[in-house]
């Protein structure tokens, strides 16, 4: 049942109906998630004898990659691997062995996009030993780390990495460690009823062609999974921050950090660790698109707004590409989120005394208290290096973001020491230990 207003629901449904009718999609579903709950669902077209529902399965395509990436990050958090490890350390004998786990996750390994087989999405899959034999040195297209180059093969190797370290198949590993804890029980490696049939729609006539569907076997971690709007909505909530204990909030945030630019000079699309990233209309989105013969899907989450959106359709091509963000625009137009009410908070007097004006040389900076004992240090005029800091057990402050991410801030009686830079209450305060000395201002 919709939890948005009637006018909003009608506007959302109309946008979905226009997509289905004008793009000639056999069936399409869409949903919006807010604060971890599905607040709107819509379906158009037919699956069998009726309209699609929240329980109708569609193929996820490359959204599978994000789920596999979570399994890899869990291994990292357990200490079973490091993201800086070369693949060779855990999966010896591959031509991509010099690439690191992080590079494979972020599509910066330089590995070929597609496997050296017949069109893998439309043919029965190979077993992993056969695939590994075919992926030779000539399948490495770029120096690892040089640039973003999407690689389905890279995620096949990551699936095998998960399988070997867990001692079970990749699908069993993600079922036990990711899908079951998130209660995504209708997400499966093979289709189950009720599911949509994948179709290609003729470009010049209103007829359809059923697309083939096979088990991709070794390539399966790149796009095998099937799911439902209900389950994909739970995944949208996960990407937005409702981790359900599957990952820590810090690890999920790390996955959402840009590791490569995916659209050249535009710089509006990128990739993190198993997650696609996009900046659209002021939003910073994380999620993934999916495409397999007969199926398209997309899921995005905006963690800042605690909102997610998705669609699933059984067509090979032809959709506009703006459906999900248009749905978010409609929600914002009709039911914009209200800001949280401001309330005063208790403050440590010692921290309160640190707030106010500081100077990095002659440049004024403002130090502010954040909720939860955090600090924010930013230029007064808004231009330049800004970071947030959290307290550490040794009395220092750790930078969370910006230029000073990972660096230490130390508080002294008359100055701040930020990774050797000295901040003073007055510009170049002569009473503070400013390197180079201070001789005084003059005309």
Mind explaining what this structure looks like?
The protein is of the alpha+beta class. The chain folds into two domains: 6-334, Beta-lactamase, CATH 3.40.710.10; 349-424, no CATH class. Helices cover 24% and strands 23% of the residues. It is built from ten helices and 20 strands. It has helices at residues 6-22, 63-77, 101-105, 128-134, 152-166, 170-179, 229-240, 249-255, 323-334, 349-354, and strands spanning 27-34, 37-45, 58-59, 199-201, 208-210, 226-227, 260-261, 269-271, 276-280, 283-292, 295-302, 307-313, 356-360, 363-370, 374-379, 387-391, 397-399, 408-411, 416-418, 421-424. Strands 2-1-12-11-10-9-8-7 form an eight-stranded antiparallel beta sheet, sandwiched between helices. An eight-stranded antiparallel beta barrel has the order 13-14-15-16-17-18-19-20. β1 and β2 form a beta hairpin. It starts with 5 loop residues before the first helix and ends in a 19-residue tail after the last strand. InterPro entries: AmpC-like (IPR050491), Beta-lactam-related (IPR001466), Beta-lactam/transpept-like (IPR012338), DUF7586 (IPR056008). GO terms for molecular function: hydrolase activity. This is Serine hydrolase domain-containing protein. Keywords: Hydrolase.
List keywords for this structure.
443 residues, alpha+beta, Beta-lactamase, 2 domains, 8-stranded antiparallel beta barrel, 20 strands, globular
| Unreliable spans | none
Total number of distinct structural domains: 2
**What is the CATH superfamily classification of the largest domain?**
DD-peptidase/beta-lactamase superfamily
Q: Assign the CATH class of the largest domain.
A: Alpha Beta
**CA-CA gap between termini:** 73 Å
Question: Per CATH, what is the topology of the largest domain?
Answer: Beta-lactamase
Briefly note the structural class of the backbone: alpha+beta
- N to C succession of SSEs: HEEEHHHHHEEEHHEEEEEEHHEEEEEEEE
Average pLDDT value?
Answer: 95
Strands ordered across the widest β-sheet: 2-1-12-11-10-9-8-7
Beta-strand fraction estimate: 15-25%
**Biggest beta sheet attributes:** 8 strands, antiparallel
By CATH, the architecture of the largest domain is named: 3-Layer(aba) Sandwich
